[in-house]
């Protein structure tokens, strides 16, 4: 993947097993809020903190492609899918930063649940040396850390001005006011296994692919 200097770009990682509107709609709202020029989807191969995906890497990649076809906001980076070892965000960010250059404004999109557990991530202390963090709201999660040191870290880096995200390449945390979409891939897989249709939760081309390949049916 080659990069040219552009406005604010963001990465959004996940197993996407399957990709659904709970992934896409908050990110589209976030893009309008902060002026994102591009969102790079990063399908994980071996997520270090979660159970292994039900669909294989090529199937999950194909579903991501189907979900974003015709949408110019999104593109895909497959470097994590091509690894056979756990996907650590800090390593991916270091690799992308080397390719993009030091001055490209770059952000990483996470949910509020991930922010509150970010101190468990490998190399989390260096994340803001490579990117900004854009935090999407999640139903049922506190806005603040219980740990005072982590709350101090958040307060030190937090900005309420989305324009700052385009002015410097990294270092800020922005708590976005995105829609609360209470959809989980686990619930979708359970619904599909019980014979329910999920056209209201997943883009139609992805649902069609799921049925054609008999995914999540048992």
Can you tell me about this structure?
- It is a single chain.
- By secondary structure, this protein is an alpha/beta fold.
- It has one domain (9-182): 3-Layer(aba) Sandwich (Rossmann fold).
- The protein is built from 8 helices and 6 strands, in the order βαβαβαβαβααβαα.
- The chain has a 6-stranded parallel β-sheet with strand order 3-2-1-4-5-6.
- Helix 4 links the parallel strand 4 and strand 5 (132-136).
- The longest helix is centred in the N-terminal third of the chain and has 14 residues, at 21-34.
- The N and C termini lie far apart (36 Å).
- 35% of the residues are buried.
- One of its GO terms (molecular function) is ATP binding.
- It is an enzyme of class 2 (transferase).
- It catalyses: nicotinate beta-D-ribonucleotide + ATP + H(+) = deamido-NAD(+) + diphosphate.
- This is Probable nicotinate-nucleotide adenylyltransferase.
The secondary structure category is alpha/beta
Number of separate strands? 6
- Termini distance? 36 Å
**How much beta, percentage-wise?**
5-15%
Mean pLDDT over the full residue set? 90
GO biological process, one term: NAD+ biosynthetic process
Family: Belongs to the NadD family.
Domain Cytidyltransferase-like: 11-190
Pathway: Cofactor biosynthesis; NAD(+) biosynthesis; deamido-NAD(+) from nicotinate D-ribonucleotide: step 1/1
